[in-house]
Amino acid sequence: MKNLFKQFRLLLEYLLVYFIFSILSILPINFVSNIGGIILKFIGPFTIANKIATSNFKRIFVNMSDKEIKENVLISWENLGKTLFELSILEKIVDEKNNRITIKGKENIKKINENNKQVIFFTIHQSNWEIVLPVLDQLGIKTVAIYRHINNHFINKLVLKKRNNSIKSKQCFYTPKGIKSAKDIISAVKNNLSIMVLIDQKDSAGEIVKFFGISAKTQTGFIKIARKNNLKLVPIQNFRNDNNFCIKFCEPIEINNQEINDNEVMLSIHKIIEKWIKENPTQWFWQHNRFN
Question: What are the residue boundaries of the structural domains of the chain, listed by start?
Answer without folding.
Answer: 2-282
